[in-house]
Give the backbone structure.
Amino acid sequence: MIKPTEKYFIEGEKGKWEVVIGLEVHAQVTSNSKLFSGSSTKFGAEPNTQVSLVDSAFPGMLPVINQFCIEQAVKTGLGLKGKINSYSVFDRKNYFYADLPQGYQISQYKNPIVGEGEITLDLPGGSKKVGIERLHLEQDAGKSIHDLDPSSSYIDLNRSGIALMEIVSKPDLRSPEEVNVYVKKLRSIMRYLGTCDGNMQEGSLRADVNVSVRKEGDANLGTRCEIKNVNSIKFMQMAIIYEAQRQVELLESGKKIKQETRLFDTKKNETRSMRSKEDAHDYRYFPDPDLLPLNLDKNLIEKIKKNLPELPDQKKERFISEYSLTSYEATILVSEKEISDYFEEVVKNSDKKLAKNWIMGDLFASLNEKNISITESLVTSSKMGQLIDFISSGVISGRTAKEVFEIIKETGEEPKKIIEKKGLQQKSDPKELEAIIDKIILDNKDKVSQYKSGKDKLFGFFVGQVMKASGGKGNPQLVNEILKQKLK
Amino acid sequence: MTDICKKSLTELVRLIKKKEIKSEEITQSFIKNINNDKKLNTFITNCSEEALNKAKNFDKSPKLDTLLPGVPIAVKDLFCTEGVKTTAGSKMLENFVPNYESTITNNLWNEGAFLLGKLNCDEYAMGSSNETSYFGNVTNPIAENTVPGGSSGGSASALAADLTPATIGTDTGGSIRQPASFTGTVGLKPTYGLCSRWGIVAFASSLDQAGPMTKTVEDCSLMLEAMASFDKKDSTSINKKKENYSKNLTDNIKGLKIGIPKEYRVDSMPNEIDKLWENGKNLLKDSGAEIVDISLPNTKYALPTYYIVAPAEASSNLARYDGVKYGFRSTKGNNLIEMYENTRSEGFGDEVKRRILIGTYVLSSGYYDAYYIKAQKVRQLIKNDFDQSFKKVDAILTPSTPNSAFKIGEKKDDPISMYLNDIFTVPVNLAGLPAISIPAGTDNNNYPLGLQLIGKPLHEQKLLNIAYATEKKINFKQHLNRWWEK
Amino acid sequence: MSIDKDKIKHISKLARISVDEKKIDGLAKDLSSIFKFIEQLNELNTDKVEPLTSILNEPLRSRKDEVTDGKIREKILENSPQKNEEFFVVPKVIE
């Protein structure tokens, strides 16, 4: 049952205000070359070394579209349950900026490649569907560097012309937390599809955040402001909180909100108006006459659809039924494709309950501690599987396994080797354990009678003694069983 | 050898292939003519020295199995030529030396030709008289103080004055055909998409086409054969098999139908033009063609449509000239915006600025639907008119221009009057059709006038054949007394 | 429609072309007459006409996703009026 999510409000002096948020996410398409030129898209290259004559807009240069980028956009659109438009047009968005060599950006205006779709968010209070307005392809701009020289700016066009997917959400988001979940889900879907690596530090994913406020219960939308180019989820949240507060204060003091473009200042933690964008609203869009309209073959769309990998939502449903996971557990395990792949490799041959507990517990903790991703961990899925198998088969106890895990985490050594080297095998021979237990019972006759006359807590004492005598290697289950039996 | 420079391109190629003449001799002759010209101002960049070296190298080991072996050719300064200044007739690119070669010129060089020089033109191809060039006006060799037409004015003038055996221009609204008409030469605008636009300084992307400018139709077919090619670097390039236009040229046009559009008879048209048009009709009949009356009802709206679409595209194409990557940069201005505004204000001439402003306006918010979209709708109607007519005819015959060459300065202060020069040529670009202008005769001042033949898309061979047959019958001869050498 | 001075100033700002105060009147006059000329199109009823989308009846051609260009920094920078070894250099941008 879908419960309404907890509502987020700004407490103003004159009442509660709802925050309405829409996101325009710019996601760099994973491809070898740029959208309209053959230059490389690799991150981190020396300035202006991944730039062609077309990218730098020399006289007479012309665009030729990258087929793979088209397919990546279609794939992403399908992943967002979007309507794939078989007819779409590339338009020129005209404005002047130093990092825009053509004086226009090739984008899509009236006829985008993908229409309406949706993303389902898994929130603590239940799931929520967020509408997608559209997805279109466009060129990324170059980079201006302002801090290397007091009177000049330096221009690097490596990024100029890389394919971007602009994904516009409907104004369905209502809180910074929803924005967090939305961006992570969108990112996860694209990483599953392989259409965008979602690496925000490298600039693969950025967002323009549209924020407006309205009185609780008001059905109309307030005037919105757009906060441009925010490149981390944390900053998006901080920007939203500041901006919503700013708008509430303005409105409560009787002023109007001016619809404008703003920047988030990460140092001062506030948004401010962008001077240069004042007159840039008139982009004079018109269809690019150097290109023709794009007509997508229905067979191509079908082919892409057929070859789509399993997406997070489907995988989550399957995990819940196939591996008896709770919705919460499944959500976590499908949040990243690498995690879900890891999990499935482990449970192929190993106990699923142990697998989920160990992965979500010790493994995740170790990833956080080392600030690495699951694919970088020395605890590979096969080593994890082996470790779990040793627990299942009783070779080692759960507690010992934690010790072994720590070693694998640091050295990458195989569990088998570690256990053998350190002689960590559990004592699971009943005869051996019986002998130890018999001796302890013998040596602690008084405690035995105390236990037998009702002091149940003493059971722990006996377990401790057995563990001490066995060097900590007594199979806990067997120890319990045999002790219970002998102490009857 | 009698005046080498008066020979046709076809004849020169024939002589070279028969080893009756050397490339060096040809090149020297043209260089002499270029150097003797004191008045026409057709060349912006003279490549005589390099041309002579190339000619000598060619003669050392001549490769004769190409279309234009050992032929020096000067080209409109809108084609980017590697290592050679390319200015587009503008201060903005006054010192711009491209490190790449346009596909069209590359095709010519691959066929054995080499660069003789870069020819003057209206700034960024915007003009109909070659009076907007930063490098000064070009004069028409037919008479002192007359315009050669534009924007390929330098090309037409150099050709008519025998300073180059053939040349290439670009045509966006008539910029090859109108100067051809004014100078008594032949000029062809191919079907949109037949010739690659890669490496040509762009004016209006959906209208621009490079084309040959020559003394005869035969030469024209030879040049077109060398120029046309599928270019995968140009998304508007048509993937079509190459044709042997010159080999298949014939004057047998029996049974072909020629349309005469009634809307091209404008009231203000001088008598002489009407007479030449009528004469052309009759000559075609003599050649066995059938004359058909047709109607192109939306003709009068072509020019206003053009003056919305072309400036709109130009305003966007010229946005890249900002002083950052290449070209002129103003020294005035304290920040980026001021640098842009001053660079573009100082670097562009008045006509270019005027058209950029018009284009910016018609695309701007609130006006886009009323102007740009409206124009694209009318453009569709104009194209439909032609499509309908071509169901009935193989080609259409019209005058090339509504008047002959006018005096330098005569129309400079009246933009509309200047624009009206293109009234017969502009509909062709809007519809993406091929069209050729051939000299039809002269007016009362003895100034040449041209007739235009418009063809079906990609039917250049048929068009050239009809033009060839007509040219033969007209037998136009132009004798200029080389006054520009004094 | 007549084009007034304010319109010219606004449009030239959009087009990043500074216009000489002395020339604005002449420009306004020229543009007004040009616009009067192009407004002839209003004589035509085009309600049922689709705007031309492309003069060619061809599909949009695409290319393979291969790296075929770049690594020509010197070539890219050599024509710039102001540059250093790695970048284009422009007057400071104020944000």
About this structure: The mean pLDDT of chain C is 92. Helices of chain C lie at 5-14, 21-38, 73-77. The interface with chain A takes residues 13-14, 16, 53-54, 56, 58-73, 75-77, 82, 84, 86-95 of chain C (CB under 8 Å).
